[in-house]
Input
Amino acid sequence: MTSTRGMAVTGLGTALPPTVLTNADLEQTLDTSDAWITERTGIRERRVDGSTGELAVQAARAALADAGVEAESVDLLILATETPDALMPATSASVAGELGLRCGSFDLNAACAGFTYGLVIAERLVAGGLDRILLVGSDSMWSITDHDDRNTAVLFGDGAGALVLEATADDSAGVLGWDAGTDGTLGSVLACDIGGTIRMDGQTVFKKAVRVVVESCAAALEKAKLAGDDVDVFAPHQANVRIIDASARRLGIPGDRCAVVLDRTGNTSAGSIPLALADARERGRLHDGAIVLVSGFGAGMTWASAVLRWASQPIP
Ligand code: COA
Output
C-alpha cells in the first residue's frame, strides 16, 4: 500500500435535485407514517426527479470550481453509478462532453459501494502517474423505485457528489488501507431488473450490512495500522441511521465522529458518501491530517471500505 506520491482531495462538490419529498408527503400516498420512517431509518426527507447525468455534471462543476482547476486539465473521469441514463453510451461519456473534458472516462457500477471502489482505483492510478482525477458518485434511485411500495419508497432519493483528486508530494496523504468484498449468493435480496423497480428483503440486507461494514472497516483499519478510536470522520454509506450507529459502536468510533446526511437525502447510493464528506467539511471537521474512514455496501451484495489521511493541497 506504499507509493511515492500521495493523493489530495483538492475539490469537493455536491448536487441535489430541487424537488423535496418529505415523510409527510409520503404519508399521503402510502400506508406509512413520519414517526415510523424517522424511527426505523433516520430519514426525514429526500430529493427526487433528478437525472444521474445532470446531477453528476452539477456536482463535478462545483468540485472543479472548488479546486480552482479547469476541466481540460483533468486526466480521467470515473463516474460511479447504478442508475445510468442509458445502457449506452456510458453516462460518464455524456458528462465528460458536458464538462468539456479531454480525457478518458468510464462508468463504474458497484451499486452503493461504487464511490469507495472509485476512490481506491483513483488512488492507485495517481500513485501510478496520473495527476488529476475527477471522481463522481451520482444516482437517481427514485427513478427505479416503485413509488407505491412502502418497503422501498421511503428509503431512496437522488443525489451526487464529486471529488477532484490530485497527486501530492506528501506520500502519507491519501488511502492508507482498504478492503473490498462481494457475496454474489445474496444477489436476490436487493435487485432491480433492466426497466424494472427495486426489490428488497430489508431485514437480510440490514443484518448483512452491519456485519460487512464492521468487518470490512476493521480490515481496512488494520491495514492502515489504526484503530476505530483514531478515526476523526466516519463517512459511511447513508442507508439507515441504525446501520451507521450499530457499525460505529462495534468499531469503537464515537457517535459524534459519524457524518450523517440521510435525514435530508435518503439513500442516494453512490452519491451518499461524497454528500456525507461535503457535510463533514462544511462543519469544519475535514482538516488536513484528519483520518477519514469511508465504507459503502449495497446490491450484489458488494462492499468496500477505505481509510484516508485527508490532505487538500496538490503538488505545488
Ligand atoms: N411504514 C410503516 N410500516 C412499515 C413500513 C413503512 N414504510 N415498512 C415496513 N413496515 C412494517 C412491516 O410491514 C412490519 O409490520 P408487521 O410487524 O406488522 O409485520 C413492521 O413495519 C416491521 O418491519 P421490518 O421489516 O421488521 O422493519 P425493520 O425495522 O427491519 O425496518 C427497513 C425495515 C427496510 C427500514 C430496514 O430493514 C432496513 O433499513 N434494511 C436495510 C435496507 C437498505 O439499507 N437497503 C439499501 C442498501 S444499499
